[in-house]
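Title: Prediction job returns without error message
Component: structure pipeline
Severity: low
Priority: P3
Assignee: unassigned

Description:
Job completed but the reporter wants confirmation the result is attached to the right record. Sequence as submitted:
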Amino acid sequence: MDQKNIEKIKSYFSQIKGLRVAAEAELFDSAELAKQYNFLLEKIISLVDEDLKEEISHLKIESQSFGYTSYGGGSEYVKTDVFRSKITQLVYWLENRFAFGDKFAVVGGLIHQIKDSEIQSRCLDLLAANDSFDRAISEATRIFENRLSKKTGSSLKGTKLVNETVKSNPQDSVLKVSEDKDIQEGFANICRGIMLYFRNPNHHTINPETSKEDAIKICAFIDLVLQDLEKAKIQEIK
């Protein structure tokens, strides 16, 4: 899902939480709040991917839940239990799908810091799923591997790719991030670590126990490494 759309959904989520607080306080016209809720829901539905639309389309408050009182000039109202049920379900859905809730507030915020367009387009939808978060890690490491391969022109894969193209000594390395040997060595070790610790376990086996929080952290970390990879220089080694 496009990062801009996620930011818009986040804004709507904040407004929906405000509506829920107002509805619980019963200080405002419930029918008007429900109409605002439906409006925001429609906005969110228009932004999410097609396979997610059906998950929340039923949360719209239908016309039969509205009515008019027989007193006070026939004021419009909405069935309170229906309104509260619908808005609570939507809040929980958004919290779990996009890590907007308090539980994921800090970690979830990392999602919105990811800058790499390929990780955004290929990993964010996997992070928004209900489970199987190891797929996001596998995809992020695949992006890293492919990017390193293209940058260096090497056809090798995995650890062999890193060992061949990212040396600890900047003078011997096809990919050079720094003239400083310690910095170059550190980057080389990080690249090897991505392959050995993140890529291989998730590439060769299924890890259903991987949590959403861990997957977000790892994808955000690889995003940072990709930024340095893009800035690195290529040199011909004789």
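Comment from assignee: result matches the submitted record. The radius of gyration is 24 Å.
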